[in-house]
Amino acid sequence: MTCRQPLTPVLRQLTRTTSFELGRQSSRSQASSLARTAAKASAASGSRRCFSSSQPRPLKATASVRQAQSKDDFTSTKYPEIKRDERFASLTPDHVAYFRRLLGGNGSALIDGVTGEAADDLAPFNSDWMRKYRGHCQLVLKPSSTEEVSKILKYCNDNLLAVVPQGGNTGLVGGSVPVFDEIVLSLGRMNQILEFDEVSGTLVAGAGVILEVADQYLAERGYIFPLDLGAKGSCQLGGNLATNAGGLRLLRYGSLHGTVLGVEAVLPDGTVVDDLSRLRKNNTGYDLKQLFIGAEGTIGVITKVSIQCPQRPAAQNVALFGLASYENCQRAFREAKSQLSEILSAFELMDEGSQALVHQVTGSKRPLESPYPFYCLIETSGSNVDHDSEKLQNFLESVMEQGIVADGTLAQDETQLRSLWSWREGITEALGHLGGVYKYDVSIPLSQMYQLVEDTRARVAEAGLLGDGEEHPVRAVVGYGHMGDSNLHLNISTRRFDARVEQVLEPFIYEWIAERQGSISAEHGLGLAKKKYIGYSRNPTMVGLMKQIKRLYDPKGIMNPYKYI
Ligand code: FAD
Ligand code: MLT
Ligand code: ZN
């Protein structure tokens, strides 16, 4: 199966959903009408409400992407303290000739800026999704088989050429693009779905398969990919594993450390590690595949993936609530877990700042009549429509009666379901449209989670950096995230990247998190952005063990240098 050309933008037009406001009717009658809507919605949905769209969608280029780039944008200029490792060789025409012979005459398998002019073609491989990091890569290689990956890596290892594996290049920590002149190894041509077992739900696929393509393939067979995220139209399975992506339904389907059954990977010396097991249980020695999950391309290249996929839920419902306080969001989560238990598949948090930015960028009509300080998006996924709607009705009634939720809207069909999701999924892209973003993806105990946003906002304001006019680099400090996983996304939206902002934010945020025993990276990884801050979340013994693993697998250090640890 090859990937099709994606077309549809991520931010979809919001169609109006049914909304109820407390105060207009008694909470009891309101709860009942909302509950009736839930029942109607479930009935109308029939037996299936699938969430994947018909085509994979690439993320739209951000406003900053379209801006002309200057030499100041290079990572090496912005961070002069990072020095090129002089052990690495520089690319020569002889190296390029070797790769050209290896990958065949097919011009599309190689972008060569060493022996010719290819600046425009190289540009997208050199810049990350946020336009925060930019490298000087002169050669992109696009192998189509494990054997080619193996030969490329062996040659690079023998000749001390540094390599950056790249999937969909949607990573948010600067891990997927080179810093200097590293070769980009792009996995996009390894995009075959190789096997699917319709009884067990085991999928085996090439690392370059786009996540949404895999999910569509599964949808046609009654299954679902156990990971979903806003970048699904562009990111690839190999990249998902390499970052141990979390996404929107980790609450339900768990981490990739649990769902991935097997991995095929190539080590820097060309050794093919065939651990492409299809078994759920296999206690024969160390579980080495786990090392590649979350390794961010620092110990080898993932070439194939075997993953356990659950049955696609027959019934899905989505509701979006407005809440007056973060305290109420916590109460709503507690109630959702206790009342919706096994059908709860997502519990997401958005603050008003994040929703105002989505509105500013899309111009879409907002789902609720008035703004609220906080919003929670709840999704249920189950196998029995009647059972699910009854549970949801009871839940809605209860949170309204208790005054936890101030306003709510429930999707009545799939279009509305997607529309509600777009207010959550679209935040990242909206932020990208508005300029530079400093992103912090953190795990903190739920009770303290939103305090970080408030403290950061106060600090940036005190420094005189936050405000409406052009003279203020910071437009807004917003928070959203996977509340069900205690994972907050703190984002500082700027009019332009400004070193003063970074100095106010770091290490302040990392210290704040360390004091509360949180993690400085819940799901995006370390990449370049967090390499030097790992000590805030991991003790010296752990970091030491990680460095030993890196040295064992990649003794010459050619894999994704300058990043991770
Ligand atoms: P890339 O960005 O290309 O690479 C990421 C890292 O993996 C790099 O270090 C790269 O070297 C390495 N790598 C890539 N492919 C391979 C391979 N085959 N073998 C070895 N190493 C490899 N992340 C989440 O966790 N949850 C979210 O909800 C989420 N939502 C997002 C929404 C948007 C709009 C965007 C832009 C990003 C989001 N992300 C999220 C971040 C990102 O999409 C994920 O990290 C994704 O898994 C990266 O996949 P990719 O194919 O784009 O990898
Ligand atoms: C998300 O949950 O939307 C993603 O992790 C991306 C982001 O943090 O913006
Ligand atoms: Zn996330």
Automatic annotation (TrEMBL):
Residues 133-312 form the FAD-binding PCMH-type domain. Residues 24-49 have a biased composition (Low complexity). Its EC number is 1.1.99.39. Keywords: FAD, Flavoprotein, Metal-binding, Mitochondrion, Oxidoreductase, Transit peptide, Zinc. One of its GO terms (cellular component) is mitochondrion. GO terms for biological process: malate metabolic process. Residues 18-77 are annotated as: Disordered. It is found in: Mitochondrion. GO terms for molecular function: (R)-2-hydroxyglutarate dehydrogenase activity; D-lactate dehydrogenase (cytochrome) activity; FAD binding; metal ion binding. Signal peptide: none annotated. Its cofactor is FAD. It catalyses: (R)-malate + A = oxaloacetate + AH2; (R)-lactate + 2 Fe(III)-[cytochrome c] = 2 Fe(II)-[cytochrome c] + pyruvate + 2 H(+). Its main location: mitochondrion. PANTHER family: D-2-HYDROXYGLUTARATE DEHYDROGENASE, MITOCHONDRIAL (PTHR43716:SF1). Belongs to the FAD-binding oxidoreductase/transferase type 4 family. Catalyzes the oxidation of D-2-hydroxyglutarate (D-2-HG) to alpha-ketoglutarate. Also catalyzes the oxidation of other D-2-hydroxyacids, such as D-malate (D-MAL) and D-lactate (D-LAC). Exhibits high activities towards D-2-HG and D-MAL but a very weak activity towards D-LAC. This is D-2-hydroxyglutarate dehydrogenase, mitochondrial. It comes from Immersiella caudata.
